[in-house]
């Protein structure tokens, strides 16, 4: 599964994307396309679809499952015989987890903390497959990672304080 | 929430967002890249924090779609940082920036391995995540055993194990030959007992990949899957955090049902009952609810359950429930459900015979063709195409035609192609077919490819009755003021050939026809002018008595074009002018075109091609293959011999290549053509555009009887291959290829033997390609899919696959695309119908080109006799009467077999079992004997019971006496020989010895056996 996300806004249609795992590279090699082009093309297909249509669209022999949240579009590229609704709910599940983490997530949260979004996605999906379905577990794992980073930072600053003190 | 103070990064992102236009953004990014590059150059002064910051910046820039062609080294080096924050960034950025073939990744393998086998579980997680996302061959080689250990380790926590499961899945999917999963059945079964649902979910994904490759090994997992599904469906013991909108992990439910779909059937009655109860519950208990997420999740489960029911081909009752549900779905308001309803109906057509029930929904499906959503319209089109047959073809095609005028442009080409194919396949009469195609051209000329009008020309040419009708019809169209150019082409061709048949009708005198056509000349392009010129020449020839005025008019036109800049037009004009002046000789030269040899519709070929291209395993394709074109049968010029036809189609495509090359030069074309036809005097009055030649005027199109065609194709084909191995349809083909420089991986003969016993696996592999096979049998039909996987990052070109079927198999093979894109897998379905018992083997002649290597291999296809067997247990009270009633040869044959591979009785029983011959225990009182039964399916014998008795000699295991009985003499004989071969040869032998033994003799008819059974029987009885 390829996960990507983009936003419709101003003149920058595609702000950013998650591009991931196995199929992504297959697509890239298949069409010798830079992923920017993939996203641009896919964006064109999806953004041109009106509201109240179904969440699936054919694209280059794959199926794309997408969902719009305000100005953000999340989409996943899947095989023809994958279960579309299941994938649609993976997207929603991801959004719920983001929402819980950022506290009512918005586009800016994701742009300025794109790395965080990657961390979370890595806990949710791996090798294009769903890894964990419990929101609680994902939240716990991400919190643990955050605290590891924080601890390291505190250590670093205390060391640099010591050095600063010593070299005074 | 926490915002780590990465100020530089935030500032940079703000800057980018504040850029007014793309140009500014580009400048800002170039500046930043320059900055990062400089900083990386003097790496010494960089703190880990700074390094991390720059890598994030690079990643952000990369995400925006800019090339980042430096810094990969620095990114990878962060992986070996000792502290978590840097390591984390290193791993994540590496997975995003580098792909699996990047050389820098190799540098990291050791570090990654140390992290994986180390004790720090957070590092283990990071490493597993990266390998799971981008791990390639080298990672698989050096890490797979470690990852396997982590997955099974009882001391690892779930967070590590679930990542290990998916990491292993990736490594296995990418390199199944490297990752050793022998003996994993037990471990998988053990993993399915896992309490942690996260680990279970990941393990289930792994199981799906494993069973999809080889379900045989994983039977022991089946009851466990059913148990898991039951537990979830009944919501027993599922922690709250694993329910999603009140539904116990819908994803795990879906995955479990997916895994179950790879098992061909469920034999254990109680497991089966439990499963069906669960499925019934899902099918009946899923209601539409208000909450959209809950609704989606429950329907995701429901649709997977539907797929599982379809797969297991349950009691008819459940199948009709499914159709009823789908019928409800296609009419609901919610677009997702409507879409999936249509899609699943199409799938259903593929697996079962529900066409009649689905037809009841035709009106609703046609309504969906007008849905505002193009995705839904496409599914409706697929479904209509799939459900079309002779009874509803008229309605459906008419609907498609009507829809064509309003359809959006993206769909018109597909729509018109499908309409054309349906019209051809199910035409109740040919005049209707002509009407449809002309309407298509009229309504959607831009989307009508040349093959569509070529095809109509072929039909008209081959059907005398149709000619006046078609001529009159095209005249009606061309009379209109604005006509599409394709219409001009088809009209010019048909009127040129057949307008004289209309001569007595008002307004159809040669002169009038000419002036109608000539009006269009000014409006058409240079590709159409030659067709018009040909038509003029023909009209002139047919004008009896000659009309001086018309003649001078036409001559004047030829005169004018004699100096045309377009070489093709010029040549036609010069030639026709010269020919016209020859008088009577003109009659011979411009005589009516001969009938076209029958061949598979290029349209259908194209549809198959385009579908294979998208790897779409849709029902439409399957049905397209099941039903050979009706239209082909209408031209009963030649006996419709499916087999020869198929060969010629395959080879025709092979031969196209050189003929295309010659057509590059127009002048040489006609010569080349007429030389190939062996009649230099025949000047082709046809426009020799490349496309035209490749089809209507394909080198063989003008030839005589089809036998000759096939013959000459054979010659030409072997000529192409350097004449080294002339392939004859019935010849025994050596399996190994000697001239290739590319060495196959693994033993081809072994692979073949293995596949004779199982349904899926790898048929052939070399460094460039892997050919997998998956077979599904149903009575005397076998549906086989070849998976051609390109293992490279460059395309494989000149890919050709030809099936050389033995006489007893009817095979329909879709066309293989000429090129397989890098890393892509192409699926080529093959429909096999078993006509009668025989041990002959079909051969796949496969070739491709990679770089300068031309590889050609001939592979036996495992569509062997035992694939048409279905084990059946016959109770004693039925067995003995049958056995007695089949008395003596030729229905009952007995033979003493010597030189048998010594094996204990249970092993022999297993061997028979693996051929789908079922042991009936307890029938024979002698414990040294085996009695077995099976059903054989073929078109000639239908389902026929076969009874087997093997008497072994405990003192000498190398000999045994075998008695075979069935209601068909050739079946008895063939099955006896088949079992004998298997008992003597060693199917899994490592030596190449079986090769001479294994390819069974290719005599299509049962020959006189070397040792006459009657004689043996007599010898035995005496």
UniProtKB/TrEMBL annotation, chain A:
Its membrane topology: Peripheral membrane protein
Major localization listed first in the record, in broad terms: membrane
Stretches that traverse the bilayer: 13-31
Keywords attached to this entry: Cytoplasmic vesicle, Golgi apparatus, Membrane, Protein transport, Transmembrane, Transmembrane helix, Transport
AP complex mu/sigma subunit domain segment(s): 36-147
InterPro entries for the chain: AP1_sigma, AP_complex_ssu, AP_mu_sigma_su, Clathrin_sm-chain_CS, Longin-like_dom_sf
Subcellular location: Cytoplasmic vesicle, Clathrin-coated vesicle membrane; Golgi apparatus
One of the protein's GO biological processes: cytosolic transport
GO cellular component, one term: AP-1 adaptor complex
GO molecular function: clathrin adaptor activity
Superkingdom classification of source: Eukaryota
Described function: Subunit of clathrin-associated adaptor protein complex 1 that plays a role in protein sorting at the trans-Golgi network and early endosomes (TGN/EE). The AP complexes mediate the recruitment of clathrin to membranes and the recognition of sorting signals within the cytosolic tails of transmembrane cargo molecules.
Family statement: Belongs to the adaptor complexes small subunit family.
Assembly description: Adaptor protein complex 1 (AP-1) is a heterotetramer composed of two large adaptins (gamma-type subunit and beta-type subunit), a medium adaptin (mu-type subunit) and a small adaptin (sigma-type subunit).
PANTHER family associated with the record: ADAPTOR COMPLEXES SMALL SUBUNIT FAMILY
Protein name: Adaptor AP-1 19 kDa protein
Organism: Hibiscus syriacus (Rose of Sharon)
Lineage: Eukaryota, Viridiplantae, Streptophyta, Embryophyta, Tracheophyta
UniProtKB/TrEMBL annotation, chain B:
Molecular function GO terms recorded: clathrin adaptor activity
UniProt keyword Metal-binding, yes or no: no
One GO location term (cellular component): AP-2 adaptor complex
Keyword terms: Coated pit, Endocytosis, Membrane, Protein transport, Transport
Compartment(s): Membrane, Coated pit
InterPro entries: Adaptor_Complx_Large_Subunit (IPR050840), AP2_complex_asu (IPR017104), ARM-like (IPR011989), ARM-type_fold (IPR016024), Clathrin/coatomer_adapt-like_N (IPR002553), Clathrin_a-adaptin_app_sub_C (IPR003164), Clathrin_a/b/g-adaptin_app_Ig (IPR008152), Clathrin_app_Ig-like_sf (IPR013041)
Main location: membrane
Pfam entry (one): Alpha_adaptin_C
Positions with a binding annotation for a 1,2-diacyl-sn-glycero-3-phospho-(1D-myo-inositol-3,4,5-trisphosphate): 7-8, 49, 53-57
Domain of life per record: Eukaryota
Region (Disordered): 664-685, 989-1015
Family designation: Belongs to the adaptor complexes large subunit family.
Subunit and interaction comment: Adaptor protein complex 2 (AP-2) is a heterotetramer composed of two large adaptins (alpha-type and beta-type subunits), a medium adaptin (mu-type subunit) and a small adaptin (sigma-type subunit).
Protein known as: AP-2 complex subunit alpha
Species this chain originates from: Hibiscus syriacus
